From TrEMBL:
Residues 109-218 form the Fe2OG dioxygenase domain. It comes from the Bacteria. GO terms for biological process: DNA alkylation repair. This is DNA repair protein.
Length: 220
């Protein structure tokens, strides 16, 4: 793959370090029992991880039926199910640290890792909730480590639903979380049922981004 990380992101002199999850973590309650935690710079000096994943992961180009035609999903993906070997030891450590931090709230460990590669600003993920499995009816937590170029994770109430204290015109707007190299974002509570999220396309000249989503068993 001939995608390269922009030079400005390179910090090769520092050692790759997973910092404490709880330090600098900020929770925002979105209403309807949903919340989002953001922990900027969770992974320090993560260039080696980004580069390794870019080259070592057997990325898939998915094709999906859309009405009459078959279209390419605008990103590359690879899913590691429970018990599957992850493509880099740092991802095992990240998953363990997240399972420990969220143990009391979640009650079960993170076991799967879904990887997405957004090659440039044309790659994206459309509005959706991760509602396959228990998350369709029960609260869950999904933790996402972002690597490479900064992209926005956008969130909006599902079905444009009326929120207490929200004006009708606000239902068209979305909350926007800019995610940079090494940042952690965690969606919890009812977030997958009551809110949708997306990584919108951008016309900005952005390089590649990889996201690693950690989930509990049976949730996609
Ligand atoms: O890339 C991201 O940060 C989000 C990916 C996502 O929402 C998904 O794969 O379900
Ligand atoms: Fe998602």
């Amino acid at each position: 793959m001939d995608l390269v990380l922009q030079g400005s992101l390179l910090d090769l002199t520092d050692e790759m370090t997973l910092r404490d999850v709880g330090t600098g973590l900020r929770r925002t309650h979105l209403g309807r029992g949903a919340w989002v935690d953001v922990r900027p710079g969770w992974l320090a000096a993560g260039d080696a991880l980004f580069t390794a994943l870019l080259h070592d992961v057997p990325w898939h180009a998915e094709r999906r039926q859309m009405y009459e035609s078959v279209v390419s999903v605008p990103r590359l993906t690879k899913f590691y199910g429970a018990g599957e070997r992850l493509p880099h030891p740092l991802l095992d450590r990240a998953r363990e640290a997240l399972s420990a931090h969220y143990h009391d709230e979640l009650g079960e460990p993170f076991v799967t890792a879904g990887l997405c590669l957004y090659r440039d600003g044309r790659d994206s993920v459309a509005w959706h909730g991760d509602r396959i499995g228990r998350s369709n009816e029960h609260d869950t937590i999904i933790a996402i480590l972002s690597l490479g170029s900064a992209r926005t994770l956008a969130l909006r109430p599902r079905d444009g639903g009326a929120m207490p204290g929200w004006l009708p015109e606000m239902s068209k707007k979305s909350l926007r979380y800019p995610l940079g190299h090494g940042d952690l974002v965690v969606m919890g509570g009812s977030c997958q049922r009551t809110w949708d999220h997306a990584v919108p396309k951008t016309s900005e000249p952005v390089g590649p981004r990889i996201s690693v989503q950690f989930r509990v068993a049976g949730v996609r």
